[in-house]
Amino acid sequence: MTNKRQISQTLAFLFFLTLFGTGPRIAKANATPLSNAETVLGDIFSYMTDSNEGTTTFRSLLIPFGGRTESLGNAYTGLCDDISYLRFNPAAGAIQKETQVALFHNSWIADSKLESLAFTTRFKNIPHLSTGGYISCFYLPFTEYNFFGDRVAGSYYTESIAALNVSYNLLAGYDFKGLALGATIKAGWRGMPDYTDNDTGAIISGSGLAQSGLAIMADAGFMLQFNFLKFYSSRDPNVRIGVSAQNLGVSLTGFGDQVKLDDPLPTTASAGISVRFIKPIALSVDFVQPLNLMDMGTYLMPSFNTGVSVQFASFISLLAGFSLKGANPRISTGFEFEVAKIRLNLNYTLDLASSLAPVNRISLSAKLLLGDKGRSIIDAKVDEYYQLGLKYYADAKWEDAIVVWEEALRLNKRFDPAIQGIQSARYQIEMFRMIKESLMLD
After folding, report:
1. pLDDT at site 282
2. What is the maximum span of the chain, computed from C-alpha positions, in angstroms?
3. pLDDT tens track for 294-307
4. pLDDT digits 0-9 by tens, 84-121
């Protein structure tokens, strides 16, 4: 006979999923009414309610690390300019400027939280190759009560993820910024607490394990960078386009001879673009389409994200974003500042998950910037060689120009201005030789 407390426990969890997802609006008895503007905003998108929402497992995979990405409305697939790329586009590790270690805290809804620790670095001898990874834990208080309302068991529902990332930027140079490719392999564990026996009230050892689950999955993506309508001077490209597939895999539940295939993972395909026409302002837009790999005919509502970052000084930026997932609009804002190689983010999100009670959420992140392993020093030396070569070239000392430009190429073999300069200098030398020979014949 089905354990009644197990049913109550499952219903409580489904209630959490409904809150988290974009299912029907939920009324609360003691809810504070929304303002007229918030009510109108919720009603505008009510027709986008997704009847298939909440049918996947490991839902915490849809929760961002927090901080910067949430402040930008999660419009990050085509931006990915810090370690948060690990949750959005695995290709972006190869274009990170610095080695980074980061801590994230995301205070989600219904007293649930997500804590994450992440790391990424690029190799010194292979500067276009990177590796990174993260571990994260989502946890939700899970309490069981008997028919008299007495608490008989209390623990946490958890979802833990461990991930390892590798990416490489192909053909990266001065003019063409390369095509970055990347993949992330992930393993997840869903931990359900043990529940009690109806008759004795004693906790049944291993009862939670039967509902726990294991997930094996992978992410894949690419990112293209180039310059377009760029009205400032910088080595960095002002346009990025990214495409990513997330959570491609399966989940298993149970243990021993009771292992079976679980519900589908929250697989998504996303595409994004970011543009920086002027240096202080970055705009980003994402389109995210959920996929059901176990039933490709099942349609899920896409989500649309947009964000803007305005840098007021080298150490402080303001961010804002808007996200629409199903019928749930989310409005976010935050700020980011850097002190002594520590970058801090604070985000506030208004999540209109209910027409009667908006959910106000806070997320934080702290990133330790550990340097670029001398890449900026090498770039400065390359620039120095190039400027010296230009001086020699202007003085018609073409051989000397070639020598210093070749030194620049020893440091960066894809520094296109030096390659073009050498070609031009050799052309000048050849033309001068031909003219000299012609004069001698005359």
Report:
1. 97
2. 116
3. 888 777 889 999 99
4. 999 999 999 999 999 999 999 999 877 889 999 999 99
**Cβ–Cβ under 8 Å, residues 198 and 3:** yes
Rounded Cα gap, residues 328 and 44, in angstroms: 10
Stated as kind and residue range, the H or E segment containing 400 is helix 398-411
In this structure, is the dihedral angle defined by the CA atoms of residues 15, 18, 21 and 25, taken in order, positive or negative?
A: negative
Buried b (16+ CB within 10 A) or exposed e, 62-82: bbbbbbbbbbbbbbbbbbbbb
Write the CB contacts of 48 (distance below 8 Å, at least 6 apart in sequence). 22, 301, 324, 326, 327
Angstrom CA distances, 187 to 65, 103, 248, stand at 17, 20, 11
Token pair, residue 66, equals 């927090």
With H, G, I as helix, E, B as strand and everything else as coil, classify residue 435: helix
DSSP string, 188-229: EEEEPPP-B-TTT--B-TTTTGGG-EEEEEEEEEEEEEE-SS
Q: Which pair of structure tokens corresponds to residue 317? A: 């930026």
Stretches where the chain sits below pLDDT 70 are 1-54, 144-153, 197-201, 353-358, 441-442
pLDDT (0 to 100) of residue 70: 93
